[in-house]
Amino acid sequence: MTSGQITEQALRLIENLNSPFWFVRTKAVKEFESIGSSELLRELYIQVERKHDDSLRWIFLEGVALCLLNSNAVIIGEALLILILESEQRNVKIKNEAKRRIRTFFGNQEIFRYLKVLGLRHCIAHLPKNKRNIVTLFVAEYKVVEVIPLILEDFQSKDVELRILTIEVLRKLSDSRGNRYLKKILNDAESPELEVAIRALGKLGSPFDFRSLTTHLYHHDPKTRLAVVIAISKLLKVFALPFLYSAYKQNKSPVIKREIIHQVGKINHSLSAKFLLHFYNLENDFNLIQQFDWAFHENPKHITLPVIIRNFSKQSETTQFRLVRMIGEFNDSRGITLLKQILKNETREIVLIETFDVAVIFNSTILLEHILDAELSASSNIVHYALLSSLKHTCFDRIEHFRKWIKKENLPVSLAQLLIQFASVNFQDIKKDSSAFNDVQEFLKKYISHSHMDVLLSALDCSWKYMDKDLFNSLYQHFLLEKKSLLLKSYTLCFIKALTENPDLLTLRPKILNNEHLVKHFQPSKVSVDFWNIFLNCFRSDSSIGGDLFWEKHALAIGKSLVQWVLKAQTFEFVPEAIKLIRKSDCEIEEELLNFMISDIYVLGDDQLKYQILLFVAEFGRLDDFNFLWNESLKTKFFAHQHSHLINLFSTAVT
């Protein structure tokens, strides 16, 4: 077919593609399936581009996509070439459609791979040089490694970005056929793609390529030095340590040092653990020290731990402190031997105290024996932390050990506070042993008036849990004598918690509710129903309980609490007193309570209680209750005598 015939056929086909009739356009698209000439397909592309019509381009792409199903690799290659060129169009819709067609082609499992490869080779051979980056990306995306030799020609390009892209593609595909070009780039220290080439060679190279890399270990560009560190570590593994050792000493950049530490941590060898330990002992930068900690944990502990144990005594005091903590994080039983040696022979407090803390993790009787010996030390700090450690061990009877300590006289402030805190935290365990419980009560009596503020506050915070009559009375006596506002508040909160937990204590000192400090912090809504039972009982015998201040501050809250109490009460014994208190508190009476009294309490009460409820109904003044009030107040002589009074009260309430 001559060029004239090709052009004529292309123009006819384009005219049909551009037809206003749908069936003509469809038939024209179908003709693409039978195109057997790449020249015709190329001419069609040229003519379409001359039209500058996006609608025509869209229909043309449908036809080109059919060419990808052709069995002729040249036709496939030409169609791919057109789609790649169209994927650079300004029109986003056209661009995305072209890329979608390419992806569909490479993802189609029904098309033989050799056709895809041959088509792509034809495409690359005829693609303009300024478009090669597009096809290079497609090679990487669809992993068409068969055309890598053609991609390597990009290294001859003057386009730096294309060369860098080619290196990245080789690295992504893990294809080492371009290594000779990478080594050539490494010969030029000022090459713009040097860093990318080093990273690629680190993944694609062999251990024999390390000499090409070490020449750049002290390059002026920090990014290049960083790339060399990563590459050498990957290629040489444990044999990279001498180079990394030298690089760590020479470099001042914390970024590069951090990467060296990270790479050494991944080597997983006893020599790498020694490397880390050496610089761990010399480093002062907190961020790098943290990186060392992570690197130690990246190494398997069966490699790292023996190295730490063998070299522990050679380290500085600060490093030993960190290593002890690390042994605890490893939580490996082999560390017990080293911890035992430290507990037995160590004299430096910082290391010994950290060992006490870490020993709790192992919970070992072997270590506990030495910790108990340390409790006899002359140093108050050592005794404090040794006791703190032993009381956290669960491998022995720590409650019994605690009892021995609280029976001692003249305890230092820190130990007294520690023992009080233990009593508070372990209340449930101590409560199971009545002897231990009594011992704690006696112990607390000694400290509820202690001169040291912190000890006293701790004792008050703990006492409410162990409160009995004697302790309550002792606290009350000290409370009356106390003048400091902070301590008065602590005493008050202790009493409130104790009364909430054990309302029976109110019978010992009912007038404690008259105290202004307790009134200030009292929260009626938080006390139990039992509290109100006892409160009403006390109020029955002494109406002055609470005092004016108490009622003035908590009238509404007490009234609401009493409403709830009456609703939940199992007995009506205190209902009259409750009604009196509700009136005294001037609380707004809820309809729920009124209905409950009329329907449930009234029918079961005696005449006195019924009268109290009728008064309640009259004062509330609810119109629905008038018939009930009228009829009930006329039933007996006692009520009849008060009939007019009740009706007058009701009328006043209504108006």
Record the SSE blueprint.
Blueprint: H1 3-17, H2 22-30, H3 38-51, H4 54-67, H5 73-86, H6 92-107, H7 113-126, H8 132-142, H9 148-151, H10 160-172, H11 179-186, H12 194-204, H13 210-214, H14 222-236, H15 241-250, H16 254-265, H17 270-282, H18 286-298, H19 301-311, H20 317-330, H21 335-345, H22 349-362, H23 365-374, H24 380-390, H25 398-406, H26 413-425, H27 427-431, H28 434-445, H29 453-463, H30 469-481, H31 485-501, H32 516-521, H33 529-541, H34 547-568, H35 575-584, H36 591-601, H37 607-620, H38 626-633, H39 637-641, H40 643-654
Helix pairs in contact: 1-2, 1-3, 2-4, 3-4, 3-5, 4-5, 4-6, 5-6, 5-7, 8-10, 10-12, 11-12, 12-14, 14-15, 14-16, 15-16, 16-18, 17-19, 20-22, 21-22, 21-23, 22-24, 23-24, 25-28, 26-29, 29-31, 30-31, 34-35, 36-37, 37-38, 37-40, 38-40
Which characteristics define this entry?
655 residues, 40 helices, 0% strand, mainly alpha
Your description of this structure?
The chain is 71% helix and 0% strand. The radius of gyration is 45 Å and the shape is flat. The mean pLDDT is 85. The chain contains 40 helices and no strands. The protein starts with a helix and ends with a helix. It is an all-alpha fold. The longest helix has 22 residues, at 547-568. It has helices at 3-17, 22-30, 38-51, 54-67, 73-86, 92-107, 113-126, 132-142, 148-151, 160-172, 179-186, 194-204, 210-214, 222-236, 241-250, 254-265, 270-282, 286-298, 301-311, 317-330, 335-345, 349-362, 365-374, 380-390, 398-406, 413-425, 427-431, 434-445, 453-463, 469-481, 485-501, 516-521, 529-541, 547-568, 575-584, 591-601, 607-620, 626-633, 637-641, 643-654. Among the domains are: 1-127; 300-392.
